[in-house]
Amino acid sequence: MTDKIMDLTVVSPLYNEEESLPELTQWIREVCEKHRLSYEIIFVDDGSTDKSWQVIEDLSVKYPEVKGIRFKRNYGKSAALHIGFRAASGEVVITMDADLQDNPEEIPELVRMIREEGYDMVSGWKKKRYDPLSKTLPSKFFNLTARIVTDIKLHDFNCGLKAYRNNVVKSIEVYGEMHRYIPVLAKQAGFVKIGEKVVKHQKRKYGVTKFGLSRFIKGYLDLMSVIFITRFGKRPMHLFGSLGTLMFLIGLLAAIWLGVRKLWFLHHNIPAPLITASPYFYLSLTAMILGTQLFLAGFLGELVSRSSVDRNTYLVTERLNFKESDVKQQKP
Ligand code: UDP
Ligand code: MG
Prior knowledge:
Layout (H helix, E strand, L loop, with lengths): L7 E7 L5 H15 L4 E7 L6 H11 L3 E6 L5 H11 L4 E4 L11 H10 L4 E5 L7 H18 L11 E4 H6 L10 H7 L5 E5 L15 H19 L3 H32 L11 H28 L9 E5 L3 H6 L3
Parallel strand pairs: 1-2, 1-4, 2-3, 5-7
Antiparallel strand pairs: 3-8, 4-6, 5-6
Helix pairs in contact: 5-8, 9-10
Bound molecules: uridine-5'-diphosphate and magnesium ion (MG).
């Protein structure tokens, strides 16, 4: 007899959320049992300093569906998601914040959209948000920019509640602070059927937010990296090489113009101004130097992109409720 594939994996990254975990587990259990979904919950403890891991241990003893992965230190939400994705074995994978701001009641519909409507990925949209204005307003601008530059029509890129077909999460690599751009990564990996579902959002019940205002600056910087990486990551020479050539040509033309002019003056016995007296001289010098530098940056980029370095070496200290055979496949 073969094992039936599990319907659902819930991946929940958490950093100091001890109060919320029992309630969240209970709620997910109720929803899944009511809808007859077979499931596992993977809590990835991102180096919590409170009693979160102890709470997960207790839960995992009580419920075999609860699994835990513990990081040695706080690596960030992206790292936690990455490791959770590697460990997920459900047909549908749902990510959910552990702070009870995302509503488990959304699970059945998300699962249905992936399974029956053929979406590769469905992103939640917190249409009505229970967050302060200082967070919602910048977030609107942020989503607008992301929509324009990535051409993915989502209203809420950074929603923690998202659903994926299993092979999507196995094909993408979430690192740095890229959790905000998983839809972009998915699209880049070739999964283009990306949907959106309006989801209920709650006020944070316990604890505090783990991201300060710096999230917006970082968010924009990450957006630039995402665009760069998705467009030119595998061929940096295309960007730097063309910019470099352009710069160099501008410089070269300016230099030729100067030289020709000087020769012409000399030929006609007219007293010629010094080449260094012309602004074109400095322009051409700068442009040629910049052009060469850009070209070099392109070459270096090509070298770096060819020697693939494993970025995702996160130190996992403990795992709960996983089989030996599962763990082997979870290596990043
Ligand atoms: N989180 C994490 N590692 C971090 C920061 C946050 O795993 O370094 C988790 C956090 O515990 C929560 C989720 O990511 O489950 C979303 O974080 P938070 O609620 O603080 O973000 P917000 O809702 O304010 O955007
Ligand atoms: Mg939250």
